[in-house]
Amino acid sequence: MTDSVTGFAPASIGNVAVGFDVLGLALSGVGDRVSVRRIEGDQVVVEEVLGLDGEPHPYLSKSTDQNTASIAAKALWDEHGRGGLGLTVHKGVPLQSGMGSSAASAVAAVVATNGLLPEPLPTAALLPFALEGERYASGGLHADNVAPSLLGGLVLCPEALLPHTVRLPGPDGVSAVLLHPELQVNTAHARRLLRKGVTQAQWIEQQGYLAGFVAACYSGDVALIGRTLRDVIIEPQRAGNVSCFDAVSRAAEGAGALGVSLSGSGPSIFALCPASKATNLATAMEQACRGEGIDCQSWVSDMNAPGAYVET
Ligand code: HSE
Questions:
Q1: What is the pTM of this model?
Q2: Is 52's pLDDT higher than 90?
Q3: Are strands 84-90 and 174-181 parallel, antiparallel or unpaired?
């Protein structure tokens, strides 16, 4: 019987501009790892939370009911596991970055925990358990980070359809560039600040963009992606919290972006672009961010980046 399993889950871009709370994209090259092992007793405990440097993480809690990894793992283990479970969380995704950090921990935890079950569940069936962690972190039930982190690629995940989700085809030849400025935005707080109402005109315009974007993905119409990757409701309320947003957006547009917006609630900023322009575009975004006096890091990702997996 296996006694320990490690799961990896990628970071993700929530909202993808057009689909507030209902659309998310997995990122390659950055994610969290969670190792789980059987322990004596019948408790689920967090044994260690480590940062990228391998040292104990300075901010994240080791209380089982205050860490998204253990909340998600416990939800799954209580229903399907037996005995005690110890978790070690290796954070790779920066906190409060708009890169789905809490979701990546929750997803890596359930994928690893699943590997210790007598009868592991299919990957998609892990979604509700991972969402329990996200609910704790952001104070709402939205799957736009958890679903792409678990399943990979571009995922349509409206609450009305959950636990069902729809994997959209990422158009060939399009890349995502994500820039993380060294700033922090608390998602739960950013959500509380949002206006609750929208005008009918905003609603009609935004649902037009979302429908057009989904159609563009299926038809592979890159020009249509450029016309539809817009957020007329949420981004205008949040962009002001990210001081480099205007400069970075202008740089991305000047370097050939199809569209630019906040990743999740920010501060990260993403662009979709023709794959051939992605490296230059990332450089332009980084230069613009540093020009505003803010250090940063960027990643270039395929639109069909893999989701979470068990490391062997
Ligand atoms: N869709 C959510 C929001 C989560 O924008 O508040 C972002 O990661």
A1: 0.96
A2: no
A3: unpaired
